[in-house]
Amino acid sequence: MRKLFCTVLLIFLMAPSPVLIAGAEVLSPGLQSRLNAAAPDAEIPVIITLADRVDAGTYRDRLRSVRRRKLVSALRSKAALKLPPLKNFLQNNSARKVRELWIINGMAAHVPASAVERLLRSFPGVASVRLDEVIHLPEVMAAGAAPVEWNIDAVRAPALWQMGINGSGIVVASMDSGVDFQHNDLAGRWRGGANSWFDPNGQHPAVPYDKSGHGTGTMGVMLGGDATGTAIGIAPGAQWIAVKIFNDAGDASTSVIHAGFQWLLDPDQNPATDDAPDIVNNSWGYDGLVNECMLEFQTDLQLLRAAGIAVVFSAGNEGPGPATSISPSNNPESFAVGMVSSTQDIVSLSSRGPGACDAADDAYPEAVAPGLSVRTAGLSLNGTLPNAYTVVTGTSFAAPHVSGALALLLEALPGTSVSELETALKQSAVDLGATGPDNDYGHGMIDVLAAYRLQAGCTDGDGDGYYLEAVCGTAQDCDDADAGIHPSSTEIKGDGVDQDCNGYDLSIVIGSAVYRVDTNVLKVHATSALAEAAALNLEGFGPMNWDNASNRWVMLVNAASDPGIVVVNGIEGAESSTTTACQNTCPADLNDDGTINLSDLVLLRSNYGEDCRQLPPQEQCIGDINGDLIVNLTDLVLLRKDYGRSNCLVCQ
C-alpha cells in the first residue's frame, strides 16, 4: 500500500501543473483551456489587446480620404503611446514572433505559459488575452462544364459596361491565398508597388504569388479581363491589391489576419497617402465552427467600414441545414453572400440563416450570387499557362460577384457610402424563395444594373422599360406617363404625337421613287412638314437636294441598279417605299413626267448650247435628245415634232 501511494505521488509531482491565472476573466476560453494543460515553460501563441481603444464612430468626415487619414493616424498614435511597455515586457519574458497590431491596440506573440499570469499582474489595462488560433483555407471545389461566363450575365454586369462603367478608378483587395499575377486576365490590373502586395507570413514578400489557386480564382471573378475573348470578371476595369493571409500550407493565424486588415487600412504605412482599397473580398471563415458568433475580427471590420471600405464575405459551405452561418461572415459588419446555380436555385452547400450574430428579423446571408460551376482564372504555373482557366463551385466564388458589383457601383456613383450601396444591392435583388428576405437566399440574387438604377434615382413611371433620366442605361423616355410612348415605339405618321421620342412627329412622304430601266437612273422625290429643315437622306446614296421651285427634296442617281425599296430618313425618322420600274419611250420628255409639254421646252432652252462632254460624270445632260452630246437646234426640232405627246412613261 505504501509503495502504491508513493508511485501515485511521484506521478502527480511529475505531471505538468496547471497555470493558475489571476484575472482569468480576460482570458478567452480557448486560451484558458490551453493553459490548463500546459507546462509553465510551454510556448503558446497569444493575442493581447488593451482596453484603451480609438472610437471609430467619431470619425465622420464626408471625404473618405480625410476620414481614413484621421482614423489611421489616431490608431497609430494610440498604439505608439500604449504598446511600447507591453512590447518591452514580452521581449523581457522570452516572447518570440512579436507583432504589433495597432489596428486593435494590441500585440501578438508566442509566450511561455507562465508569462501570461505575470502579464495580467503587470498590465491592468489589458482587455483580453486570446489564443492565436489558425484558420484553414477553404477547399477549391472543382465543377463540371457550364456556359461560358453565364455568371457575368446573370448579375447584369455587361449592361453597365455598355454604359462605360467597368470599375475604372476603383481598387479591390483580396484577403486570401494570394494571386497569380502572371495570368493574362489579372496581370495588367495589379496596381503594382510595395503598397499593393503583402505577405504577413513572409514567404513571398516581393511579388504576388498563389500556390493553391483559391485567391486567383476569387480575383478572376472580381475583375478578370478578356484575354481569350470575353471578360471573366464583374469589374474588368478595376485594379487589385492583395494580402496573402494563408501560407503555402493553407493556414492563416488569427494574428496574421489582423495584420492583413491592418495593412489594408494603410498599405504604404503613411496615413497621408490615400492608397487603401475601396472593397475587400474575404472568401474564408471559421468553417469548422458552425452557428457560433465569433467577434474576433469585429473591431477590424468596424474600422474598415469607418474608413469607407466595403467588407464582403462568403457565407460558408455548411448547408443545407438551417442555422449554419460562420464567422466572420455572420458579424454585423460583414456583407455575407450565399450561392445559387445558373437556374437561380440555392446550392445545397450554401450556408443558411439565421445568422448566429444576427437580430431575430435579420436575414442570412445578405444576398446570393452565382457560385455553382463558375469559370474563372486558374494558376498560370509561373506564366507557362498565362490563359489557364478553371470551373469552380463554392460561396468563395459567389462573394467576389458582390465585390465586383460594388466596384461598378462605386465608379458609377462616386461619393455614395458603402452602406447606401449595400442597401441598394439588397433592395434591388431578385427575390427568390419565400417572398421577401429569407434565410436561404437573403434578399435575393444581386442585380447590379437594378441596384445602380435604384441608387441613381432612375424613374420609369409607366413601366415601359425606359427611364426619364439620361444616365440610366436606356434611351431617354419623353413621356413617362404613357407606356406607348418611348424610344422604341413605332411612330404614327402625321398624328402630331412624337411616339418614338426623337423630338418630331414623322411627316416624310415619298412622292415618287422611279427607276428608269432605259437609262439606269433612280429618281426619288420626297416632302416633309419640316421643309428644308428636314435634312433628308436617301439611305445608301447620301443627302438629297432641296428644290425650292417644287418645294421638295429630290435625288437623281445615275448608273444605278433598281434597289426595289428606298428609304428616306431625316431628323424626324424614316419612311420607305417600293420603287417603280419605268421606261420612257419619248426622248423629248426631258422632265420624265410622261408628257412632252412646255416644261420640257423650258428645260431645253435653259440648257441650249450645253456641251455635255464638259459635264461631270454624275450630272445628267438635259436637253440632248438626239444623243450627240450637244444641246442645239436639232434637239429643239425633235421636241417640237413630238410636242403634246403623252403616255411616254411605260411602267411595270
What structural keywords apply?
26 strands, 19% strand, Alpha-Beta Plaits, seven-stranded parallel β-sheet, 15 helices, elongated, 652 residues, Immunoglobulin-like, Rossmann fold, 4 domains, disordered N terminus, alpha/beta, six-stranded mixed β-sheet, single chain
Fold blueprint:
Elements: H1 2-14, H2 29-36, E1 43-50, H3 64-92, E2 96-101, E3 106-112, H4 113-122, E4 126-131, E5 134-136, E6 141-142, H5 150-154, H6 157-161, E7 171-176, H7 184-187, E8 197-198, H8 214-223, E9 239-244, E10 251-253, H9 254-265, E11 279-282, H10 298-306, E12 310-314, E13 335-340, E14 367-370, E15 374-377, E16 389-393, H11 395-412, H12 418-427, H13 448-456, E17 509-516, E18 521-527, E19 537-538, E20 542-543, E21 545-547, E22 552-557, E23 565-570, E24 573-578, E25 580-584, H14 598-606, H15 633-642, E26 649-651
Parallel strand pairs: 7-9, 7-11, 8-9, 11-12, 12-13, 13-14, 17-25
Antiparallel strand pairs: 1-3, 1-4, 2-3, 5-10, 6-16, 15-16, 17-18, 18-22, 19-20, 19-23, 21-22, 23-24, 25-26
What's this entry about, in short?
It is built from 15 helices and 26 strands.
Can you describe what's shown?
This protein is α/β, with parallel strands linked by helices. It has 4 domains: 131 residues, Alpha-Beta Plaits (2-Layer Sandwich); 316 residues, Rossmann fold; 78 residues, Immunoglobulin-like (Sandwich); 67 residues, Dockerin domain (Type 1 dockerin domain, Orthogonal Bundle), CATH 1.10.1330.10. The protein has 15 helices and 26 strands. The strands form 6 sheets. The chain has a 7-stranded parallel sheet with strand order 8-9-7-11-12-13-14, with helices on both faces. It has a 6-stranded mixed sheet with strand order 21-22-18-17-25-26, with no helix packed on it. It has a 4-stranded antiparallel sheet with strand order 2-3-1-4, sandwiched between helices. Helix 8 links the parallel strand 8 and strand 9. 44% of the residues are buried. The N terminus is likely disordered.
